[in-house]
Design goal:
Blueprint: H1 2-8, H2 19-46, H3 49-56, H4 71-100, H5 106-109, H6 112-147, H7 157-174, H8 177-186, H9 192-197, H10 199-213, H11 219-243
Helix pairs in contact: 2-4, 3-4, 4-6, 4-7, 6-7, 8-11, 10-11
């Protein structure tokens, strides 16, 4: 056998695998699965895009119009993408969970399914809050402002759908903030004291995000988005206080000169 191995040049040296390359390949594979899932759901949702546009048009009494040949098409694509993202959330959360699962302890892995369900519920809650509370207030404010000045409102379907999709996705992601902060505090990455210390920075970030997301950046629309973000940040601080990991206190024990010294140069206590 040894002669055969010598002739064939077979080596017993183990194949060295780059961990970074393995992680990149894993991320690439899971992103492809997520992208393919969203694409499939998007094609299915496109058949119901007219119904979804009509449903989003509920706060505005007048029919929508379009000013370009492709405007109605792209509006349908946007609402189909929004529906596809919602339908793909279980797959997205599952792929994320399978990626981080090998790095977790067995007692930590049992929280995977509850966290996936909670993340999906928070995202859906953000969409409902935005669609039932925030969007009607914003649309009614701007439409009433123009009608009080004897201006007839004719909203473009492209602008209107883009406005809705931005708000819905932003609030859906924003409602994940308390869960993210609580998890970060539980693993010891941050603490409730640190989050409270950077509260002013969080408020400034909420205002900046609101100014970027809102199409007009008026004070009214900025506050409608910034105030919920600030409230969610405070809920995240509360979750960090309740479920955060208690950091060990540094106790300075007295040194005994008669105790041996370890190889690192520190005395054994």
């Amino acid at each position: 056998m040894w002669a055969r191995l010598a002739v064939t040049g077979t080596s017993f040296m183990p194949q060295i695998t780059n961990p970074l390359a393995v992680h990149i390949q894993t991320i690439k594979r899971r992103l492809i699965i997520i992208g393919a899932t969203i694409l499939v759901f998007m094609m299915v949702a496109f058949a119901f895009s007219a119904d979804m546009v009509a449903w989003l048009n509920r706060p505005f009494p007048n029919p929508l119009v379009f000013y370009g040949p492709t405007e109605a098409l792209f509006a349908s694509i946007k609402v189909s993408f929004l529906a596809a993202v919602l339908a793909s959330l279980p797959v997205v959360f599952y792929q994320f969970w399978k990626f981080v699962q090998p790095a977790l302890l067995p007692r930590e892995q049992r929280w995977g399914i509850p966290l996936i369900l909670l993340a999906g519920a928070l995202f859906a809650l953000g969409l409902l809050f935005c669609n039932l509370v925030i969007l009607p207030l914003v649309i009614d404010f701007f439409v009433s402002f123009g009608m009080d000045r004897d201006i007839t409102p004719e909203l473009s379907v492209g602008t209107y759908i883009d406005f809705n999709v931005k708000f819905l996705l932003t609030f859906g992601c924003a409602f994940e903030l308390p869960l993210v902060l609580t998890i970060l505090a539980h693993v010891g990455f941050v603490s409730a004291q640190q989050l409270a210390k950077f509260r002013r920075h969080a408020i400034l970030s909420a205002l900046i995000i609101s100014a970027i997301i809102t199409p007009d950046a008026t004070l009214f629309t900025m506050m409608l988005m910034a105030v919920p973000l600030m409230v969610l940040y405070e809920i995240g601080i509360l979750g960090a206080r309740l479920f955060g990991r208690a950091r060990p206190s540094d106790v300075d024990l007295p040194m005994d000169p008669d105790l041996p010294i370890r190889t690192a140069g520190h005395r054994v206590r």
